[in-house]
Amino acid sequence: MAEKTVRSVARAFEILSHFAKARRPLAMRDLAREFDWPSSSLADILKTLCAVGCLSFDPDSKTYIPTTRLSTLGDWVRGALLRRRDALAELERLRTRFGEKILLGARNDLHIQYLYVLDGGAQRERRKQQRPLLLSGVGWMLLSATRKDRVERLWRRSVAHRLIDKAALPLDMLIERIEACRRNGYVCAPDSLDPGASVIATLLPDSTHDRPLALGIGGPTERIVGNQKKILEILRNEVILDGIGLSGAAGKLSR
Question: Which residues make beta-bridge pairs with 27?
């Protein structure tokens, strides 16, 4: 792994994430098929998760299931990030309006963490894994308020952790892209992470916790770039002026 992690902690989160995908009670054998770990390690992690109240074990069916403690631990987060209770419904309406993927991202050190991802054809909200901050158009947007010297440090650390190729993304190219985000108030990034896929994003800084958030619309490059003017107009009118219920307000989009 590029970043050093405590193995048992990382594995505990992998288990909890797998429950989020499975959405049903799971036996140890189910988890053993999913994760190629020593059975003793898996058993110890499950025992610990039960001991701290994150999982519940049913001795009759010999299955585990997450407890409500997990949801209550994170209850405050949505309120901190989303100002209105119906903010996710607003994101869903935006997804329906565009018919494309809607991304809500925040910086997590050298990565961008997609807090919410609503797929263009999906009916429910999904979480995504982290991606390298400096390779993402949404990440460039998040760094648009960051000083040049700090961007340089992020670039050097990303190179050291092998998250980016310094020849493919030289420092001067990165700074130029971030400065363009700052000037324009938005970013249109064709093929920034995945070939054939593009994203248009704007900044939604969180005034309460001073943690910038970025809203992105992603999809096939042909559709996103071809509809750039329409997407920016809807973002300007429905997100910037009317508000989408996210904490803070984005900077003015350039016309």
Answer: 63
Chain centre distance of CA 184:
23
7-72: CATH topology:
Arc Repressor Mutant, subunit A (1.10.10)
Query: CA angle 131-78-101, nearest 5°?
Result: 45
Per-residue pLDDT of the chain (255 residues; tens, 9 = 90+): 444 457 888 889 899 888 888 889 999 999 998 898 989 999 999 999 988 888 888 878 889 988 877 776 766 665 555 555 556 677 787 788 888 888 888 888 888 888 778 876 544 445 546 789 999 899 999 999 888 999 999 999 999 999 999 999 999 999 999 999 999 989 998 877 678 889 999 887 554 455 678 888 988 999 998 989 988 888 777 665 444 544 333 444 544
CA distance 167 to 136: 17
**Which residue type is seen at 29?**
R
CATH assignment of 77-241, among 3.20.20.60, 3.30.450.40, 3.40.1400.10, 3.40.1000.10: 3.30.450.40
Domain-wise residue ranges, the chain? 7-72, 77-241
Structure tokens belonging to residue 113: 């963490």
Q: What is the DSSP string of 91-141?
A: HHHHHHHH-SEEEEEEEETTEEEEEEEE-TT-SS-B----EEGGG-HHHHH
Which helix or strand (DSSP H or E) is residue 26 part of? Answer: strand 26-27
CB atoms within 10 A of CB 215: 24
